[in-house]
Design a protein that fits this description.
By secondary structure, the protein is an alpha+beta fold. 66% of the residues lie in helices and 7% in strands. It is built from eleven helices and four strands; from the N terminus they run H-H-H-H-H-E-E-H-H-E-E-H-H-H-H. Strands 1-2-3-4 form a four-stranded antiparallel sheet. Helix 2 packs across helix 3 and helix 4 crosses helix 5.
Length: 271
């Protein structure tokens, strides 16, 4: 026979399990209802309406761009070319490391030449940039599609009052006077212009007579022609069989004429 205490405990355990199952079922149903209500509230909120409006505006703008490009292909091609050119300029925009590399290469090229040969303009420009670099006064500014290199008054690590006070900083209106070079399309243009004919000393031709100073230098075609003729002068002489036979005939005729003249002048000399 089952004791009454065991029957009582079984009934209490059954009631507890039933209560737990009811609580879990109600919690799950409330969670589903709350989740659905949160989604509906988020969907009907102002942020969701603003996002839907923004997406609709972008969709309409893209549609107008496609339709306009189809109706006006020339205008669309011009805009596309401008955008592509701006993107190419952005990708090829030189940085401060490229300027320093170009500066050191130019200094090395001038260092290989004698002071009597190098150009004074190129040497002065490069030496000035090297001095500013050693003093830490070179600054670099990127404009997206182009870059600027300009000079500053102090090194960025200087602890002087003039270098740290913001009220004594150089105004932007003087930036045009401090620009040293412009970088665009992967190169620094002013440095390249100064290094043109860096191995020609202009002072050597400053005291020439007026007649020689007015003489135009030889053109590139004339220089190339002279170099080609000079190179061909060192090549061995090649003669064909006809040229050899003609030369032998001329030599034989010259020899016979010389022998005849000697035969005529010989008796006169003996008399």
């Amino acid at each position: 026979m089952v004791p009454p205490s065991y029957i009582f405990l079984s009934q209490e355990r059954f009631k507890a399990n039933m209560a737990a199952s009811l609580v879990l079922k109600r919690w799950c149903s409330n969670a589903v209802q709350s989740k659905g209500s949160r989604l509906e509230r988020l969907r009907n909120s102002r942020v969701a309406g603003w996002c839907r409006g923004l997406l609709s505006d972008y969709r309409e703008a893209c549609r107008e761009v496609v339709v306009g490009s189809w109706e006006r292909p020339f205008k669309a091609s011009v805009y596309l070319s401008l955008l592509g050119g701006a993107w190419a300029c952005y990708l090829t925009n030189p940085d401060d490391a490229s300027f320093e590399t170009s500066l050191l290469e130019s200094a090395n090229q001038l260092g290989l030449l004698s002071p009597w040969i190098r150009s004074g303009t190129s040497d002065g420009h490069v030496q000035g940039l090297v001095r500013l670099r050693n003093e830490g006064r070179l600054r670099y500014a990127s404009l997206g599609v182009a870059s600027l290199t300009y000079r500053a008054d102090h090194d960025p690590e200087a602890s002087l009052y003039e270098a740290r006070c913001s009220l004594l900083s150089v105004p932007w209106a003087e930036l045009r006077e401090r620009v040293l070079d412009v970088g665009f399309a992967g190169r620094w243009w002013l440095l390249g212009a100064k290094m043109r004919d860096y191995d020609v000393n202009e002072d050597e031709f400053r005291h020439l007579p007026p007649a020689m100073a007015a003489t135009a230098p030889p053109s590139t075609a004339g220089t190339e022609r002279n170099e080609k003729l000079h190179a061909e002068s060192w090549k061995p002489l090649v003669m064909s069989a006809e040229d050899v036979a003609r030369a032998e005939g001329e030599q034989a005729a010259t020899g016979s004429e010389t022998a005849g003249q000697e035969a005529q002048t010989g008796p006169q000399t003996q008399l």
